[in-house]
Amino acid sequence: MKTRREFLKISGSAGLLLATVPWFSAFSDSKNTEGEKARIGVIGPGSRGQFLMSFLVKNPKVEIVAICDNYQPSIDEALKMAPNAKVYTDYRKLLEDKDVDGVVIAVPLNMHHEIAIAAFDAGKHVFCEKAMAITPADCLHMYDTHKRTGKVFFVGQQRLFSERYIEAMQMVHSGTFGEIEGIRTYWFRNGDWRRPVPSPELERKINWRLYKEYSRGLMTELACHQLQIGTWALKTIPNKIMGHGSITYWKDGREVFDNISTIYVFDNGVKMTFESIISNKFYGLEEQILGNKGTIELEKGKYFYETVPPAPGFLQLINDVEHKLFDAIPFAGTSWAPETANENKGDYITGKRPETDGTSVLLEAYAEAVITGKQPEQIAEEGYYASVLSLLGHQAIEEGVILDFPDEYKLDYLNHKRAIQTTL
């Protein structure tokens, strides 16, 4: 696990980070918070909740004081990690607990909004797993309630705290890769996305991701991570969204698609795509940023310049001979030159193969913010737009239309202004 201190040693001074990654302001008072504790309540310590707990329990500034779930096996596993935590089966009782400073919400998507609003109103700081909520309106309500109450709000977009993503964005914003002409994202798996169910009546409780009542499927579970890369890289939001989805392979009673493609179009005509198929894993997952001077593949942690050094002399000689021979052969029509993929091996963004995804540093930042009560700049807004973009993509797929980004869901952020202010 890479700690925030190790990250700062690699990435340079805190001042440089704050200039390019404002949400690192969460660590501004870290020296002054030594010996203090963020008292955290975990609502929904299932598989994802336990994964987050695995980082929290290693942080000397965190004490998990409470857990809440209505599924006993999850409670039992969580208590192995936080044996002294109080146990609740009703989140409202946990929110009444005066010993809880902040909560981590890792419940099914359809419950995020209800619990987050209740937590803000109870005076608790909130970390909510992505996506924020199941509708854009609910996302906006959560954001507005965060602003109204002044409580800290984090969304689980761990790439914002990943070493390689941060360094890559510094390169993008400095013009290293020229003008950005496209962003391609995809996430391919080969599996039914199901979890074992000990009893039939627990099917929807355990496999909630497969049903539209609780989930928006691949768009909110996977795309939400990757679409955030577009707003971060281009510092704006797309104005048109379109897509298509279907169930092509896993015809097992699920309601959400197993095969989707979406296109997001920015004002300058640049496009960002997201694609996911869960019956073929050959290409895995990747976020590609394409500039006229170079390319980044963020999951691999590598970058590639368009112009590469010339081949060694012998290979260059062979290449020249081949061109002289074949260029002289009169093919019908225009000369044919195959546009094959570049063999450039690239370089690692951080100088080495990626090791972590940013989750540990993200949770460190949340703990610091809970202790200080200070909201880091821009992190709530980045999480908001990632969620809304994924939900608008789902809507475009469901309705079979090209959507304009609704003015009422724009924030005073990324060169946009709220057209309609909601009443809280």
Structure description:
The protein has three domains: 4-160 and 358-376, Rossmann fold; 163-307 and 352-357 and 384-409, Dihydrodipicolinate Reductase, domain 2 (2-Layer Sandwich); 311-343, no CATH class. 34% of the residues lie in helices and 18% in strands. It has helices at residues 4-11, 14-20, 47-56, 72-81, 91-95, 112-121, 136-149, 163-173, 203-206, 218-234, 313-327, 359-372, 379-399, and strands at 38-43, 62-68, 86-88, 102-105, 125-128, 153-155, 180-187, 240-246, 259-265, 271-277, 285-291, 294-297, 302-305, 347-348, 403-404. Helix 3 (47-56) packs parallel to helix 4, helix 6 runs parallel beside helix 7 and helix 10 (218-234) crosses helix 13. The longest helix is centred in the C-terminal third of the chain and has 21 residues, at 379-399.
CATH topology of the largest domain: Dihydrodipicolinate Reductase, domain 2
Main sheet: strands, sense, barrel: 9 strands, mixed
Roughly how many Å apart are the termini? 40 Å
Beta-sheet strand percentage? 15-25%
Structural class determined from secondary elements: alpha/beta
Task: Provide the CATH top-level class of the largest domain.
Answer: Alpha Beta
Mind telling me the CATH superfamily name of the largest domain? Answer: Dihydrodipicolinate Reductase, domain 2
Q: Numbering strands along the chain, what is their spatial order in the largest sheet?
A: 14-13-12-11-7-10-9-8-15
